[in-house]
């Protein structure tokens, strides 16, 4: 069975389940935003068709309520009503900064704590506490009755979920060998796509079902309960798989130049040229992906307003995204055994480049054909997440692995999460929404593909340098007979002082 033992599969199952539930908690506000705003009363207001209007002759799809911008004019129309739209600065803070800021900072802080105190602090315990935190916050959001309660609980969701990726990524590296690590990271990364898709199903269908009269609150409660169960299973049934491979002699307190301090290890790992180029590439790739995620609904409302988008996005995310991220890990594992670690980045660059024309096809073809392009885009583009973090855990020092992942996520989210705002000035400059999206979405995919390919060169150099050092070490560990000089060789040594038979030829 190799790496895929029952124990390892159980670890991976619980990690993936926690990640899925965390992503549902993350995206529920995006699918229930209007209902939450109308109940809690925050954000902008607009004119909408009055669903309680009883005249069956009035066609909801043909009314012009959405064109009315004035409250007085809206209320004068019998079948229109002035309601909260779910948009506005309050919603933007709730969905974006309230989550991203806490997610980035707390992830780095917790990872540093874990790496510094890894001998005493269990990563399993941290993930269990994190899962319990975002599940409890999600549950309490179902009972919130003010806007600032929502903001604080949203921050708690971010703090809890920030533990999952760095801690679980580090543990997966300890559980699975390099030949299986890509697939394991691919399965774990399903959490992003399954969680995103399930947030649409629970948020839209769960709210409309009005379960037990709870309306929009029911999806939050339903999501939180299994999260609390997973947290208990994490804490009670798992142990930290961290290896203890350091010899006792190296753990002594005697001075040793090889025993670097924690921050020296961290700086050396993060200053790796391959990692820095990889970070810039990930920023470009994250910008492309979030540009589409932030503008998906607005784009289709602008160009295809009568197309039923919901289930198509669910299909594209779960089918294309989940299969793509698994395939990326699977094929990169096959390549790394034959071509080396840098071949993972070759695969990543190729898949990202192939995804770019599919992104363009999504923009320039009418649905449902555009949806076929979108599914193909997700299949190729979403290979990046599993491959990216597999490479990261393999090139950084194991002692600072979790912190490096958290720092990487912090930098990637700060740029990739904020740079999509350039769509607004681009749209104003070009006077075309579609062209602005085409520049940033497919354009940044091509840019990231080139950068992923470039990052493979320093990684290839590092890998060859390791092989060279391994060859030198092998030469030094020759047999005792070869290291013990004979009387004849001593005589020859006296006759020829320049020759030293005890020193390997490669070293000389």
Short summary of the structure?
With 508 residues, the chain is mainly α. It has helices at 6-40, 71-76, 89-95, 97-116, 123-141, 147-161, 164-175, 178-209, 217-237, 262-270, 273-303, 310-339, 343-364, 369-381, 384-395, 401-416, 423-430, 433-476, 480-483, 487-495; strands spanning 45-49, 80-84.
* Poorly predicted spans: 245-259, 488-508
Shape: globular
- For the termini, the CA-CA separation is 45 Å
Provide the spatial order of strands within the biggest beta sheet: 1-2
Integer average pLDDT: 79
- Give the amount of beta strand, in percent: under 5%
Largest sheet: 2 strands, antiparallel
Percentage of residues assigned to helices? over 70%
- Helix/strand order: HEHEHHHHHHHHHHHHHHHHHH
Radius of gyration: 27 Å
Q: Structural class, judged by helices and strands? A: mainly alpha
Number of helices: 20
Q: Please give the number of β-strands.
A: 2
What descriptors fit this protein?
508 residues; mainly alpha; two-stranded antiparallel ribbon; 2 strands
Task: Describe the fold and architecture.
- By secondary structure, this protein is mostly helical.
- It has helices spanning 6-40, 71-76, 89-95, 97-116, 123-141, 147-161, 164-175, 178-209, 217-237, 262-270, 273-303, 310-339, 343-364, 369-381, 384-395, 401-416, 423-430, 433-476, 480-483, 487-495, and strands at 45-49, 80-84.
- Mean pLDDT is 79; it is low at 245-259 and 488-508.
- The protein contains 20 helices and 2 strands.
- The protein has a two-stranded antiparallel ribbon with strand order 1-2.
- It starts with 5 loop residues before the first helix and ends in a 13-residue tail after the last helix.
